[in-house]
Amino acid sequence: MHDKDATPIEAIDFETLQQPATQSKESKQGLNSKTVLWFAFIVLLLGALVVFLFLPKYVNEARNAETVTEQTQIDTPPLVELPEAMQEQAVAEPIKEPLVELSPEELSALKQEAEALLLQLIEKQKLLESKAIQKWAGEEFKIALSLGSNGDEHFRKTEYPQAIAAYKDAVKVLDDLEQQISPTLAKHLTKGELALTQAEKDTAIVHFELAKSIDANNSQAINGLKRAETIKELYALLDQGGKLEAANHFSYAKTSYQKATELDPLSTEAKAALNRVSNRLTENEITRLINQGYASLKARQYGDARAAFTAAQKLSPNSDKVKQGIASIEQAIRSEKLTALAAEAQHFENSQNWSNAAKSYQQMLALSPNSSSAQQGLERSQQRETMLIKLAGHIDNKLRLSTENVANEAKLLLDEIATINNPGSNIEQRATTLKELISIASQPISITLLSDNQTEVAIFKVGKFGKFDQRKVELKMGKYTIVGSRSGFRDVRKVVTVTAEMPSKTIEISCDEPI
Length: 515
Known about the structure:
Shape: elongated
Structural class: alpha+beta
């Protein structure tokens, strides 16, 4: 491998080699004879040949020996064992191959190939040196350097095939070492992490420092070195927290674990311990809130019960126990409302307020659609409310009872009421009144009609009675229109309501207003 201070063969300054000749020429300025000049020329030529052929070899050998001496001073533990054949090749004397005459073009091509390999070798050397190769594969690296130096020696002698072979061997060794960079880094990071888990501070530092020397920006190595400084204090806190946790002092244990995570945020053990005890505290708090909720529920303090279960739900949104507690509150409130509505409906039934009773039963069914008692109560209340409305309609329009159709409807209503068990006093009383009205409406009432024997008298829907002075007519209870007509006189029309209680049962009808 080329030394940085070595002078390549191509870079030799031929003017330097000509300086002795110049000095000889100046020292002989006084000689003017042709013989002296020829002698000086021959001496100069011989001196130049000596310098050109032998001096570079001695200088390069000296410098090459110096470089090898510096490289052999690196003392690193071997991590990879090279094949014995390659090790012997690296240290063996160069094999002298028979000289083969090569053309200038062939020599140029071989030289370029050797230079390309040399450049590749130098780049890999720099890369490995930046990865602290001397610390983890020093012996292998020294072998590669030795192979490179052997290649340099052949290169200086223009033995390009041998130089190429040596350079290729060196590159092969460096390639193998380059492939070991990542595995070596990973190995020491893993050992460093293992040492941390075992609280082995010094061992962790050794591995992380080596990893950092391979990759100066490796965050795991950087963090590992920081964590190694606090590892003993960390495990002291974890040990303290473990004892408190074992004694069920979870709040104090959590404090210790929190300090541990603050001391080493990357500690998985500290995080796991903190999560574990935090979950235990959360479970304990949820249990406390659930018990508190059921206690408040039992005391019918629904607001407090809801607050307790809601707080528990925030800690554990998917907890079935919390969901059951909240459902129990709703069930208790619903049951209480149903009980109150049932009592309310019964009160309205007792007071025969069937309309409000029906409303109470409807509210009960809204809370409990499958309640048979509420359904029966609603039907019972609605039936009686309907009967009262119909009874009131017939009683308030008793004159219509004289009509056969209306009278039949009223009789059917009374028959329906008769089939009901305990319809209530209001219905019974009104049914009695209606029955009496139907009886009255069916009995004719005697009405006396008075006229002037000149007026034609007729009663709508009853008949024509002609002229008379006085006439008795039997009419059922109802409203009648009596009409009187006489030629040359204005007609007379009277509407009479016939009832048994009417003030007078005598009606006068005569046409006495001439036209």
